[in-house]
Amino acid sequence: MVKMLRGLIIFGAGVYTGVYVAQSYEIEKVEDPMVLFQRFQSFVKTKMDELNGKKSD
């Protein structure tokens, strides 16, 4: 019972905070998850290439 009440309080605080931020600030839309994942893969590949290049020097 206590865990459920704690969860509801945290959820309510999160909803309130989200509504407040949405009303008070202009927030850009978040990109599609696949676009973010592709960007992450590209970043990791670039870093791996840099590391492999430094090892062979």
Structure in words:
With 57 residues, this protein is mostly helical. The protein has one domain (2-56). Helices cover 82% and strands 0% of the residues. It has 2 helices and no strands. The N and C termini lie far apart (62 Å). The mean pLDDT is 89. Pfam families: DUF4535. InterPro entries: STMP1 (IPR027854).
Q: Could you give a short description of this structure?
A:
This protein has 57 residues and is mainly α.
- Strand runs, count: 0
The H/E string reads HH
**What radius of gyration results from the CA coordinates?**
21 Å
Output the structural class: mainly alpha
Quaternary class: single chain
* Count of domains: 1
Indicate the overall shape: elongated
Helix count equals 2
**Low-pLDDT stretches:** none
InterPro entries: STMP1
Pfam family, one: DUF4535
Task: Break the fold down into its secondary structure elements and pairings.
Blueprint: H1 2-24, H2 33-56
Pfam family, one: DUF4535
Spell out the key features of this protein.
57 residues, single chain, mainly alpha
